[in-house]
């Protein structure tokens, strides 16, 4: 079994809620503080800084854009936000105040694509703020989104129990999951060219190739409630187990390992490969956890 070292760094108060995380073009980690309405930044080995938004906007997912800025969804404010690496913020309202934007990712067309959870739509926003929307089946609750190796955008349909794809022409396809009530959330493209996703309610990791063929891998603990997933630099996919306070990995052939986080009930959510080659996960208790090959797990403060 691969051993890992997990070091937690406190980056906010316990009520701020680090939620999603990504690596920016400036070699820093950028993360959302969902409860306090802030965007955080941390250079590995340094001290965290933060940029304030509307405290009630609930920033959720954050992703690097094609323009050298970071883009994020404001779930409660129904806006898409943009922050430059020097901290300049712009916000773009969606066509109506009922969209619930959540997942966001850069597309191959130079735009950002995002999910509208409460409106059952996929949105597209250009870097100058022009929004286009594409309808999905009613009640689908689209969640996370990522770009696929085939040039399409792939997304999870949490309540429709399916994986969807939208092409640059707006054409959509839906692939039902074999397991009922799986509630997929996180999704990412793996080194094998397939899409890997987590099934939160089924306690499984799923894989779908670009032809729509689905394979599911049960976790050792089916009640783990996996939440987010990201590719590592070792060919494995790394994921968070929100319900069991762990991070885990899965190889292309389905071999799974899980690792406990040092602090109990830390609520791991987003996970991303950091600029230092380690995996970093956002812990809602107010910390980021750095996961590397090693032997000891500790917690550090500010």
TrEMBL record:
Stored Pfam families: Vgb_lyase
One Gene Ontology term of the molecular function aspect: lyase activity
Highest taxon listed in the record's lineage: Bacteria
EC number(s) from the headed UniProt entry: 4.2.99.-
EC top class named in words: lyase
Cofactor(s) demanded: Mg(2+)
UniProt keyword terms in alphabetical order: Antibiotic resistance, Lyase, Magnesium, Metal-binding
Binding site for Mg(2+): 267, 284
Sequence positions that bind substrate: 227
Matching InterPro entries: Vgb, Vgb_bact, WD40/YVTN_repeat-like_dom_sf
Residue positions of the active site: 269
Subunit structure: Monomer.
PANTHER family for the chain: VIRGINIAMYCIN B LYASE
HAMAP family on file: VirginiamycinB_lyase
Known function: Inactivates the type B streptogramin antibiotics by linearizing the lactone ring at the ester linkage, generating a free phenylglycine carboxylate and converting the threonyl moiety into 2-amino-butenoic acid.
Protein family per UniProt: Belongs to the Vgb family.
Name the UniProt record assigns to this protein: Virginiamycin B lyase
Organism: Actinoallomurus liliacearum
Gene (UniProt): vgb
């Amino acid at each position: 079994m691969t051993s890992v070292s997990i070091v937690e760094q406190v980056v906010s108060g316990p009520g701020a809620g680090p939620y999603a995380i990504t690596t920016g073009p400036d070699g820093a980690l950028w993360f959302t503080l969902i409860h306090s309405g802030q965007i955080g930044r941390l250079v590995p080995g340094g001290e965290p800084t933060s940029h304030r938004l509307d405290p009630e906007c609930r920033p959720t997912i954050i992703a690097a854009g094609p323009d050298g800025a970071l883009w994020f969804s404001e779930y409660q404010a129904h806006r898409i936000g943009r922050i430059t690496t020097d901290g300049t913020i712009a916000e773009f309202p969606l066509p109506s105040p009922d969209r619930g934007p959540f997942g966001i990712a850069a597309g191959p067309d130079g735009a950002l694509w995002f999910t509208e959870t409460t409106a059952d739509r996929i949105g597209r926003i250009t870097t100058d703020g022009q929004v286009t929307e594409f309808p999905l089946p009613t009640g689908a609750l689209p969640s996370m989104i990522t770009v696929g190796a085939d040039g399409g955008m792939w997304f999870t349909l949490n309540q429709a129990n399916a994986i969807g794809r939208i092409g640059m022409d707006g054409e959509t396809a839906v692939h039902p999951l074999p397991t009922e009530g799986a509630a997929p959330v996180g999704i990412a493209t793996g080194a094998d060219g397939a899409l890997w996703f987590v099934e939160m309610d089924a306690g499984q990791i799923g894989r779908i190739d670009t032809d729509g063929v689905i394979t599911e891998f049960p976790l050792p603990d089916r009640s783990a409630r996996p939440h987010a997933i990201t590719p590592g630099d070792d060919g494995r996919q790394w994921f968070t187990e929100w319900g069991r306070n762990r991070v885990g990995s899965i190889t292309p052939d389905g071999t799974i390992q899980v690792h406990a986080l040092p602090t109990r009930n830390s609520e791991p959510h987003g996970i991303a490969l950091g600029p230092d080659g380690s995996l970093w996960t956002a812990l809602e208790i107010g910390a980021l956890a750095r996961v590397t090959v090693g032997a000891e797990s500790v917690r550090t403060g500010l």
